[in-house]
């Protein structure tokens, strides 16, 4: 006790923080470029291509532009992309979603031909393809009809697989869709096509910029009858458990930042790879603050990606992937 008062504390945690070399030596988590997935928006109607105001640095691309971009990403050591299609035609039953010459199907084929090593994940949902903007087909009451929607998802998933997608990523939140997609893929002998399910996808306010980018805001109502209620974490564990049982290879939590506890809970409970989607609103918030000079963007990005990694995510779908890879290549 006397010694302590004369010389101060014996244990000094600041010792290992005294230089970058010391900090690097004991750093607990690393954000690796090969675990980041860059989302890409592809338009069928070339007139719709161009920058997205609420997502600075992100554009809607034509199919040839998407191929060029994929090549660039691969040179930056990014290993995976997530494709979102914006079709020219929308109708109540999302028929352009399973069109073999559809915008996503063509993009998959062209990227796999040009950059075969790049992992192509195809987001699978109906909201970009329905004229009402909901993620599925509607029943007579205007609610999303779960089982008819699953049929469309299965049909579409098979066209993505036939086009060469490595990963199918259903983001619709219908019950039973993972099992149905897995069965159909297996029956058609697409045994190597993996399923990354958006297992716990919340009805979040942080999707705003995505809806502008993809033009898929619901024309009436909201998505609370199928996406999860933000305060729930135990229910997320049930969603994840079901998707694993139905054959999901990777399970995703979306959004990431307001749900770090959900990522952590899933990490502690399940041994499958866990993905997190660092969503459009999370990207837009940082850019908006940085453009006002209120925070240092690269440092904020590093901290955000580190926090998602520390929470337990193995891979992160993020609009920052390219930017992060450029700085850390
Ligand atoms: Zn959707």
What is this entry, summarized?
The protein contains twelve helices and ten strands. It is of the alpha/beta class and 329 residues long.
CATH topology, anyone?
Answer: TIM Barrel
Structural shape: globular
Radius of gyration over C-alpha positions, nearest whole angstrom: 21 Å
Number of helices: 12
The SS-based structural class is alpha/beta
Task: Describe this structure as you would to a colleague.
The structure is a single chain. With 329 residues, the protein is of the alpha/beta class. The protein has a single domain (32-328), classed as Alpha-Beta Barrel (TIM Barrel). The chain is built from 12 helices and 10 strands. It has helices at residues 2-7, 20-25, 63-75, 103-114, 146-163, 177-187, 208-214, 234-246, 260-269, 280-291, 297-311, 321-328, and strands at 36-43, 50-51, 59-61, 80-86, 119-124, 167-170, 194-201, 250-254, 274-278, 315-318. Strands 1-4-5-6-7-8-9-10 form an 8-stranded parallel barrel, surrounded by 8 helices. It is globular. The structure holds zinc ion (ZN). Zinc ion binds next to loops.
